[in-house]
Specification:
Blueprint lengths: L2 E5 L2 E3 L5 E8 L6 E8 L6 E6 L6 E3 L7 E6 L4 E6 L8 E9 L3 H7 L7 E2 L3 E5 L2
C-alpha cells in the first residue's frame, strides 16, 4: 500500500519561499503520477500542480504559474513543490496525492482531486507578515 507524507510547510512572510516534499513508502513512486492540492478554510480543494510518473509532463494552476515549480526524484521516492513569491492567498493546507501511471495523461491534464486515489495527511502553509 502506497503511503505519502508531506513536509516543509510553515509560516513565511509574503514574497518568501518554501519547498514542500512528498515522500512515498510502500511502493515505488515512479508507478504514480503525483498531484499537489490545497485547501483553505471554507474553500474547496483545488489543484495546484500535477506531474507525470516520469516527470516529463507538468501542469500548474493559473494562480501559481511562474511562481511554483513541481519536480520529482524517483530515486529518492520524493516529489517536491518549490513555492516562490508566496502571497497571503497561498495560505492553505497542502496535500500530495498519487494515481497509478496508466492514467498519467488524464490526471496531469485535469489535475483534479477526484482523479487521485492515494493521499497524504497534509502540511500547513501560512503566508503572513
Amino acid at each position: 500500500q502506497l503511503q505519502l507524507v508531506e513536509s516543509g510547510g510553515g509560516l513565511v512572510q509574503p514574497g518568501g519561499s518554501l519547498r514542500l516534499s512528498c515522500a512515498a513508502s510502500g511502493r515505488a513512486l515512479d508507478y504514480y503520477a503525483i498531484g499537489w492540492f490545497r485547501q483553505a478554510p471554507g474553500k474547496e480543494r483545488e489543484g495546484v500542480s500535477c506531474i507525470s510518473s516520469s516527470g516529463t509532463s507538468t501542469n500548474y494552476a493559473d494562480s501559481v504559474k511562474g511562481r511554483f515549480i513541481v519536480s520529482r526524484d524517483n530515486a529518492k521516492n520524493t516529489v517536491y513543490l518549490q513555492m516562490n513569491s508566496l502571497r497571503p492567498e497561498d495560505t492553505a493546507m497542502y496535500y500530495c496525492a498519487a494515481e497509478p501511471r496508466h492514467r498519467d495523461t488524464i490526471v496531469v491534464v485535469t489535475c483534479t482531486h477526484g482523479d487521485f486515489e492515494f493521499w497524504g495527511q497534509g502540511t500547513q502553509v501560512t503566508v503572513s507578515s
